Amino acid sequence: MLLDTEILVAGPGAAGLTAAIGLAQAGYRVVLAGPADTRPTTRTVALFEGSLRFLGSLEMRDTVEQAGEPLAVMRISDDTGSPFRRPPVSFHAREIGTDVFGYNVPNSVLVSLLLDKARTIENITIRPQLIEQYDFSDDRVIASLDGGDTIKARLLVAADGAASPARRAAGISTQTWDYPQVALTAFLDHPFSHENVSTEFHTRQGPCTFVPLPPQGEHRHCSSLVWLMSRREAERRLTLPVEDLEDEISLAGQYALGQVKLVRPVNSYPMRGLAARRLSGPRIVLIGEAAHVFPPIGAQGLNLGFRDAAHLVEVLAGEAGVSVEDPGEKDITDAYDAKRRLDVGSRTFGVDFLNRTLLNHLPPVDLLRAAGTTALAGIGPLRRRIMQEGMSPQAGAPLVMRNKRRMADCDALPN
Ligand SMILES: Cc1cc2nc3c(=O)[nH]c(=O)nc-3n(C[C@H](O)[C@H](O)[C@H](O)COP(=O)(O)OP(=O)(O)OC[C@H]3O[C@@H](n4cnc5c(N)ncnc54)[C@H](O)[C@@H]3O)c2cc1C
């Protein structure tokens, strides 16, 4: 069967789903192809205000917030043992005039909710098969699906994850690198309330972060854990008896939540980096992890992927909300690339830099990190600016994510 469409979105992960919904709402005929992964894991995503505004524009904000847990305080604690280390620094959402920075949502729940929404939209056709082959020409892309169907589209949105067969087929090269780290993720039950505080302990092997999670079944007080460590430590911890692993997690969290219990088996993710050399090419744009991958520090990955999707919708819908006749024309793919380049490059660099300062044991690096923490703790306008940028970057952000309030309003709030 041949499906003729305006836009093909390859990959129904969270980035591809939001792009498909936004583009369909802007009036385009969209085919969304690929198998959605809704299997429950212990991976969550913390979504900040900018992402929530984008979800609001897709009529999904309330639904996603109800499935998540609010994050009101973000605490960073230096647990590196460095002689220069500073006391923990806490960032309160109320310092920038809001109740919460964002919500922490299980990844599989987010994908399921977005998929349910996509199914209700008339001009989205969903095909759950893998795309096996692409054929690019001047005026269209033809994709062949597993099972024999063919899709002909004017624009291909590659949202098919880090390995991105679409990006490879378009000949867009990448820079890739490995980190000597593995992230273990877990859902934890604990006796004390998290009080909506997310705590990131910076250790010599990477951050160990406890993030508030909604109650899981009969488990009332829950958090998700993202713990970066050396490969050897990950191998050792993955073979520990459950009670011993629970003891090590409780200790890593300095028993702030009490003695933790695992709610489900842990998952592990090797840490890698990837940066596509271009974010678009003839008849293709890259979004989400097809374009950029970096370690989960400061919860930036999908928030950046949502900015890709929101910018793509903005470029294609235009400020006047008028659809473009040929959504894959060069002006459009070039405009997308130009809008995304700085944000993607600076986030990838920033997260990589922070991760490497933790892995580096040199005293000048420790001193630099301590100086940064001191400045964040003591200089009110700086901390508020950083909170605002982390929660909802303003410079060059998609219009739908921009803050209606002026920073000057926030600067007037108490420290
Ligand atoms: C431990 C951990 C914690 C994280 N925490 C956060 C956080 O708190 N906040 C945050 O913002 N980010 C976080 N991230 C990053 C975030 O999880 C990712 O950025 C995000 O899930 C990537 O979504 P995506 O849609 O780009 O790609 P994916 O989720 O990888 O989706 C790709 C989709 O493409 C499909 N696909 C693959 N091949 C094909 C094909 N040939 N044809 C069709 N479809 C195909 C796949 O089936 C899948 O559905 C974290 C990451 C990790 C590892």
Put the structure in a nutshell.
With 415 residues, the chain is of the alpha+beta class.
- The whole-number mean of residue pLDDT values reads 89
Determine the CATH topology of the domain at 2-71 and 106-176 and 272-359. Answer: FAD/NAD(P)-binding domain
What's the main sheet like? 9 strands, mixed
* Coarse structural class: alpha+beta
Structural overview:
The strands form three sheets. Strands 5, 6, 12, 13, 14, 15, 16, 17 and 20 form a nine-stranded mixed sheet that branches. It is built from twelve helices and 20 strands. The protein has a domain at 2-71 and 106-176 and 272-359: FAD/NAD(P)-binding domain (3-Layer(bba) Sandwich). The model is unreliable at 405-415 (pLDDT under 50). Strand 9 and strand 10 form a beta hairpin. By secondary structure, the chain is of the alpha+beta class. The relative contact order is 0.18. Helix content is 35%, strand content 29%. The radius of gyration is 21 Å and the shape is globular. Helix 8 packs antiparallel against helix 9 (330-359). Flavin-adenine dinucleotide (FAD) binds at residues 10-16, 33-37, 43, 45-46, 107, 130-131, 159-161, 165, 183, 185, 226, 269, 288-289, 296, 299-303, 305. Flavin-adenine dinucleotide binds next to helix 1, strand 3, strand 12 and helix 8.
